[in-house]
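Long-time lurker. I teach an intro course on protein structure, and each term I like to show students one example going from raw sequence to a predicted 3D structure in token notation. This year I'd like something fresh instead of my usual example. Would anyone be willing to generate the tokens for the chain below so I can use it in lecture? Attribution to the forum is fine with me.
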Amino acid sequence: MLVATLAFTLAACGDDDSPAGAPTTASTTNAAPETGGEPTTTSSPTPAWQLDATDANVDEAQRLIADTQTVVQRYATADDATDAGYIRINAKHLMNLDYMFDEFIMNAEHIESLVVDEAGNVIGGMYVMNLGDTLDDVPTEGGPLVIWHSHGRLCVTDAPALAPKNDAGECPAGTTAIDDLPMVHIWNEAQPNDDGTPRDAAMCGTFQYLDLPHETTIEGCSGQSAGGGNAITHEH
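-- Reply from a regular --
Happy to contribute to a lecture. Here you go:
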């Protein structure tokens, strides 16, 4: 069993970053009225799940969500997760060291981290890439619908073990800075919009349970975001 000092700086994963930019829209043309006149053109928002995603991307994202939720929902509380081998690394996250250092990537049965709320209820899971991996190495499943992000604040020992940077932002003695460690959240319940209402299935699609693109305004979908594109660094 690997012994590690884990102090991921992931508490900011649930921050309230606000997406920026103009909504993606689709234009539709209506027939001219019987009384004559020119056809009228109106714009309607494009659902979030249509953001450059193929049918295969949608299928992959739906399968990833379903598989992940099936496994994560085995653990109702942080205590359940601890009994199964996870350890708490901060107020919001638990980590399974065996899964962290195994060969599996984005495998629901080997999900590296679980996310809990203030009451200790498990509310989602988080896949984490292997030590040394960067955003260039993340899987392509789900395309633009699965938004990987990274904090870039980890140091590694020869054990291997993880440790936080010191107050000066440097890796402490006996550790080495590692490249960004990408991660992606999958939530058990539909995530809230900025106004507290649940994200709408028709407009958000799989983004009900995934973090939104960071720099894209999606009408009808708001709330927690990660990065833009398939792999984007998201610093806190």
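Some talking points for your students: The mean pLDDT is 75. The CA atoms of residues 135 and 231 lie 6 Å apart.
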